[in-house]
What we know:
This protein has 324 residues and is α/β, with parallel strands linked by helices. The chain folds into 2 domains: 9-224, Rossmann fold, CATH 3.40.50.300; 227-316, Alpha-Beta Plaits, CATH 3.30.70. It has 11 helices and 15 strands. The chain has helices spanning 49-56, 99-110, 115-123, 139-151, 169-184, 196-202, 220-225, 241-250, 268-280, 295-303, 311-316, and strands spanning 9-20, 23-29, 32-34, 38-42, 64-69, 72-73, 84-87, 157-161, 188-192, 205-210, 213-219, 230-235, 255-258, 261-265, 285-291. The strands form 3 sheets. A 6-stranded mixed beta sheet has the order 7-8-9-4-10-11, with helices on both faces.
Amino acid sequence: MPLDAAPPLAISTSGLTKSYGTRTAVSELNLAIPRGVISGFVGPNGAGKTTTIRMLLGLIAPTAGSGEVLGADLGQPQHFLHRVGAIIESPAFYPALSGKRNLEVLARLGGIPHVNIDRALRRVGLADRASDPFRSYSLGMKQRLGIAAALLPNPDLLILHEPTNGLDPAGIAEMRVLFRSLADDGITIFVSSHLLSEIAQICKHLVVISSGRMVFQGHIGDLMNRTQPLLRATPELLGQLGPLERLATGLGMVTQREHGSLVGQGDSRLAALLFRAAAQADITLIQLDVLRPSLEDTFLALTGGTAGRPTSVAGAWALEGTHG
């Protein structure tokens, strides 16, 4: 591949749109998911994530736009679905059948070699419980069996919708290890989730949509770097808050008072300037922190949400821009 050539994409779309009458669920979505990455797909409830995934899997037809999945035309899913594994909702299996028997049924329906069953069970850590009835499985085991079903065709691409939904911390940690091992083997994983803290731990690539439109796509680090950090400064004496505020204003900070502290947008360079100015003015600081935003903070700023954020702090947190 030439040095200036773009990396191959597992999923690419151009103007992907889905409308239901006068309501547009997904609008002009241009996805570019590189091969071999774990890509997070996030957005508020009703943002269009499920609709997008259904279009990618050929379950519903787009109203407009085009795309490719693993190099094959989105409009001809028969050319790529045999290389894709997916979980769209909670996996459904026969309760009375064992985990292995459930996979045997799916393999027979899909014309998948029997040898793939044991391989998939081992991959998700269920080999020792393969003969137990599905109804005896814990929620985490049920989710892992769903991923085993998605792995039956030895896919190049996994599309997973809320795979950690309802899991306890231990189950989520198990999923994290599994996803990383699959990505290490070159499988592309496109995973939607509302657990933003989990997405931050497992994904390097991120797609954010809101109201059916893309508001960010790219490396998760690029998104985090575009959110302005907060600077919090606390003087030893409450009476020094006013003079400290005047110093901060003189340095170009826009601040607000919170519980005896000043809070405003600022980086480590500005923190150093404020520290020196305070020392020269005989103001003793007992706290001077640069607060880096979490993915949740960034997500809420990007999508216009405020849930879970104090209004005063949320007002100080802002994005430099968006990237679509």
